[in-house]
Predict the 3D structure of the following.
Amino acid sequence: MNLTEMRARVREDLKDTDSETYIWTDDEVDGALQRAVLEYSLHAPIEQQDDVTTSDGDNELDISGLAGLLQVVSIEFPLGKSPRYMQHFDRYAGHLYMEDVGDGTDARVRWTKIHTLAAESSTIPSEHEEILVLGATGHLAMSASAYTVDRATIAGRYGTQSFRLWARDRMSRYDHKLKAISRSNKVTGKTLFTQDD
């Protein structure tokens, strides 16, 4: 689903589908969705690999062109070694500093990035779209709960309590699903051994 479709899906769950009497503006719904996209990305980021040219005699790599960067996983330099030669590195202010100096050839940077949810496209896997709906609706209901405290509404204090309870349930399910995704993305190291070991 793209952003427009996801926004409509969120409104369905919130029972906020009448454009004449929207409770939440499109900007508010989109903001909650983008927050959920970031949270989802921290648990299941996009994995990327790019070759970045090194400078001869310098250990600094410019990674300012890696849009949506979350984390640098590894730097392979020099390329073509067997086994692969991975650099120890530091990251600071949009630059990477390798342990070894460059020679003008490429270093391979493996990194993770934030997902996107835009008007025409999305990088969210279809099987995880409902997780974002859970998160966005939970955030919006929680904000409605906070907003209605000490305000006169038709439902009185029960409106605030209802929003809060519904939001808690949504956020609990959302957190559970994010943790499950995070666990499934982790690599577990195993060691083979014989009976003599």
The chain is about 40% helix and 20% strand. Residues 46-113 form one domain.
